[in-house]
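Following up on my earlier thread - several people asked me to post the actual chain instead of describing it. Fair enough. Here it is, all 175 residues.
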Amino acid sequence: MEYFRLMQDRRHLNTPYIHTLRDVVRREEDLYVREGAMVPDHSTVFVYPDRPCEFVSILDEQIYLVSESVKDVFSMYAPLMRYKQFFLFNNRWGEHHIYHAPIFRQLHCLSPESSWNAFRNRVIHCVLDKDSIGDDPIFKVADAGERIVVVRLDVAESLLRRGIIDFRMEAMEVR
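Reply from S.P.:
Thanks for posting it. Predicted structure:
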């Protein structure tokens, strides 16, 4: 089975930056402690109002947020995945958009063949262990030192079939 890392498309330069995010989520790990019990189910956050924003399908600079259409696809393949809803609001330009923070299943699935930086706190070349993945369609790689969200080939194809194109995929090595 093939897997892909799912990321924000960096060609979009005016994506929203949430300046009130720390009022809701102090750190991303709060989403994974007891399935985000400390994070409200619905939050309104404000983005910097200096320019109109490009509300793309996946935002991953601060925390991992997906649009409603991506959430719908994720829900088809992982119906039990929980989400926290964020209402992003740019009050100067009158823009708003609803995003969802998925509470991914975290898998310890790094192969020993993965390579790390000199401090061993960040993966440079990620190789996934196929036995550790099992049949999970969507997951977050645990202990990689960075956010690595992985989807199975059928999930990636489903996103593309539905016209969701403003994201980036990178093929993952699985052994």
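The chain has a mean pLDDT of 90. That should answer part of your original question.
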